[in-house]
Amino acid sequence: MLVASEFASSSLDDIKAALAGGTLTFYSVARPVSADHAVDRSGKLAAFTFATPAFGTASEDGSEVPNFVDAAVKASEVGTPGFARALTADGKTVADFSVGPGAREIKLAEVSCSPGAPVKVVKFTVNPEGGWPERPDYYDAHPRPGFSLPKVR
Predict the structure, then answer these.
(1) Integer Cα distance of 59 and 103 in angstroms
(2) Which residues pair with 44 in a beta bridge?
(3) Which of 45, 73, 119, 128 maximizes the CB count within 10 A of its CB?
(4) Nearest of 50, 57, 53 to residue 25 by alpha carbon
(5) Which one, of 83, 69, 74, lies nearest residue 20 by Cα?
(6) What is the pLDDT at residue 33?
């Protein structure tokens, strides 16, 4: 999870509460370097609306249980989801999450999206460290705004 600077000092519970009534929009690859940057090179594939409360009790495997208004939505474009951006009900960016197969934060029922096809979230795990779980050697070795360069050992 890459948290927007406005929510950087918020606890995970505060972030979950802020998402009540908000949206979770899935985009094709090219995740911005931080949640404070606009999404400018990615296609909008599908959008879910969080219910109130936005999350239920975490499951036994540690994954979050999101509460959406609709369990599945129809995709609007063709593409492979690469990340999702969560916004508050009034449109403030809260965080970006990695999406896809493998060790990503959000897993969907399908690997890709097609217009009109259903999109369903099957697993939602929050990685508070912000890196891409499957490539920490790459992602965590590059500078990000507000963070110093990693030390080479």
Answers:
(1) 17
(2) 27
(3) 45
(4) 50
(5) 69
(6) 84
**How many angstroms separate the CA atoms of 31 and 66, rounded?**
22
Contact between residue 115 and residue 70 where contact means Cβ atoms under 8 Å apart: no
Q: Which two tokens stand for residue 153?
A: 């050992």
Q: Which value, to the nearest 10 degrees, does the dihedral of the CA atoms of residues 6, 8, 9, 13 take?
A: 100
Residue found by looking up tokens 């911005």 in the block: 32
CA distance 120 to 84: 13
pLDDT at 83: 93
Residues 65, 6, 47, 131, CA torsion sign: negative
Q: Which of 116, 123, 38, 122 lies closest to 78 in space, CA to CA?
A: 116
Instruction: Decide if 72 contacts 63 (C-beta within 8 A).
Output: no
Q: How many residues are listed for the chain in this entry?
A: 153
Contacts of 62 (CB under 8 A, 6+ apart): 125
Positive or negative CA dihedral for 33, 30, 48, 97? negative
- What pTM value is reported for the model? 0.82
